[in-house]
Amino acid sequence: MLKELQVKNFAIIDDVKIGFAKGLNVLTGETGAGKTLIIEAINLLMGERADSSLIREGEDKLLVQGYFDFSTNKAAKEYLLRENLIEDDDPCDDVVITREVSRKGRNRAFINGIFTQLTTLKNLSSLSIDVHGQYEHQYLLEPGTHIEVVDKLGRDGIENAKKEYLLSLEKYEKKKLEIKDLKKLKAERERKLSDLRYRLDE
Prior knowledge:
elongated; single chain
């Protein structure tokens, strides 16, 4: 969840901070008020490309910073751990993502103050943020998210069934490997027998 967004020197925006509450948050305003710029700023935190033309006139660089709560997002926490961007005991309730773009072409990204690549931001955002408009990508239409949605809806009701399934799947995969090894041994045995028969015939 995005808790707070700070945007500085971004197009017509001088310096603004927006706090978000749990649940539905609505940005309203007249045409040209800057609603779309806020979405574009969030897109920068998601790893979208940026260039110096976005920098406010008369300024040297733009800054977009987001404060996120990933404490209930298991996939995002696991990804941050794999990338060594958090510690095991980090509650993940105040993760800071920062983008800086300068007129000299320097385009930098940070997670919790650690320099990172844009691909890392993209991977993290795919696990935590879904920005879409009319006719654009929607989270529910992405097949990879369906199991997660079902798990969240079923919660405790399907937890035992899921555990049993995973145990059965593990046993199945193990047996599958055993069969593969046995088939390999059989093929090797037949190859050796064939070779011995050939030698015997000679």
